[in-house]
Amino acid sequence: MSSVLFVCLGNICRSPAGQGVMLSVIEQAGVSDKIQVDSAGTGAWHVGNLPDSRMRGAAEARGIILDSRARQAKASDFQNFDLIVAMDQSNYDNLKKLQGPKKSNAHLCLLGEFLDPQNPPDVPDPYYGDGSGFDQVLDMIEQACPKILQTLLEK
């Protein structure tokens, strides 16, 4: 079984959206039994909370249910996941610090690596913006997840 962890700052907007979209893509591909998906945040502010209601609403409008509970990323995630996908460079840098010098099973990357070049490399944090930011984030994640799935299946 392969595994992927999506990571953003608080684990209430971008990374649970990554988890939800990826689960949908995996289900549509008929490989739910082959891929494990989770999400986490680099900070602990929202641990135990559902995703932001605005993100849940934007996802639900696309047929995606976000019902995970926020958790903080931990060093053991680098041993428990094959792929760790950071939503932006700040998340990536924080994850590198968490990983430390230890040998890791996980490949750490940016979600932007799976996007077409016209997209920005960082997935913007929609938390303090208007509702359109949530749709932009979902658009980017929906574009990246099929490529992430292909990467995991080729592993």
Explain what you see.
With about 160 residues, the protein is of the alpha/beta class. It has one domain: Rossmann fold, CATH 3.40.50.2300. About 40% of the residues lie in helices and about 15% in strands. It has 5 helices and 4 strands; from the N terminus they run E-H-E-H-H-E-H-E-H. The chain has a 4-stranded parallel sheet with strand order 2-1-3-4. Helix 1 (about 15-30) packs across helix 5. It is globular, with a radius of gyration of 14 Å. The mean pLDDT is about 95.
Query: What order do the SSEs take from the amino end to the carboxyl end, as H and E?
Result: EHEHHEHEH
Report strand order across the widest sheet. 2-1-3-4
Structural class: alpha/beta
| CATH architecture tag | 3-Layer(aba) Sandwich
What is the multimeric organization of the chains shown? Answer: single chain
Q: Identify the CATH homologous superfamily.
A: Response regulator
**Average predicted local confidence, pLDDT:** 96
The CATH C-level name is: Alpha Beta
Overall 3D form:
globular
Number of helical regions:
5
Q: What's the alpha carbon Rg, rounded to whole Å?
A: 14 Å
